[in-house]
Amino acid sequence: MTEFRSSLLKVLDERGYIHQVTDAEGLDALAAKEPVTGYIGFDATAPSLHVGSLVQIMILRRMQQAGHKPIVLMGGGTTKIGDPSGKDESRKLLTHDDIQTNIAGIRRVFERFLSFGDGPTDAIMVDNDEWLSKLEYIPFLRDVGRHFTINRMLTFDSVRLRLDREQPLTFLEFNYMILQAYDFLELSRRHGLRLQLGGSDQWGNIVNGIELARRIDGTEVFGVTTPLITTADGGKMGKTAQGAVWLDEQLLSPYDYWQFWRNAADADVGKFLRLFTDLPLDEIRRLESLPGAQINDAKVVLATEATAMLHGKEAARAAAETARTTFEQGGVGEDLPTLSTGEGVSIVAALTQLGFTPSNKEAKRKIAEGAVRLNDEVVSDPGLTVNEGKLSLGKKRHALLVP
Length: 403
Fold this sequence. Notes:
The chain is an alpha/beta fold. Helix content is 45%, strand content 14%. The chain starts with 6 loop residues before the first helix and ends with a strand.
């Protein structure tokens, strides 16, 4: 482990947020000397972010906790194009109104993790549509485009992988990396920005921005990327059979969010506690070393701490109590997700509507396997119509059916 002087890089290193740093010594010296303003960009492609974005949200939280100033850059402009990084096909183009609605929803998520305001370390949210939509094409090509070579752009993973697979990459998307680099330059001018953070797939885009700021303005700026967060089985963080783990309670209930963390693999508990909770490192080391079945106690702490940070302590307490009542006592917790059945709904449709299964076909397969229960009785008939009761899939997925 590298010995850093600044509290910022120390905490990022100790908790596992650092994958690459463009100039670790220079950034460490700067962060030890003065508050650093840093940003991460988020495109507004959905009404909420999901757990796959949580490590980026948390690294901004760590910045603020260490006495630095985070900027949340909403991609109101770049969302109109779409980032090709990690994508096999072009994104659906959204209208301006759709994008602004999504930004409003995403801001509500950030307000749970960051303190916004006018102070020196208060977070601010800015929208790159403010400057990108005002650019004039010919001046932009002359002033910015000349600093990029097609030769180099073709070497970046976001471009090369699409071309290697012979999948279309539009000219629109090809411009994305130039606009992201320009964001870095513009933010350094407007807000004295010195640092861009992002996932490991953003390394090339971040380096582009650093070079552009140096070439045009002579500004020294830095970049940090986070590792790709995977689960112990090698899966991508936040991807489940039931779909995305949303950070908005209207898209995913606090109870289901709690359950996501409670179901973490034993080997992931320590890593997730470091990344996604504020617990002290000594306590995390104690929890992750609990022997045998006691590791489940650490998972309850992880689930409760993570849920409290996003949804509040009361929602986390209610979720934990519902889980205890449902699993330990065989009862029905008040906080279980519910599905209104009206005059009745098929058991197959209920499983799919609740998100327990991604399709009716999968629901029928689970019934055939004997994995579905109604009021703790195994369901064998996929044609069954249900009105009310406790519906369960396996040992961990439960919901209430109400007329």
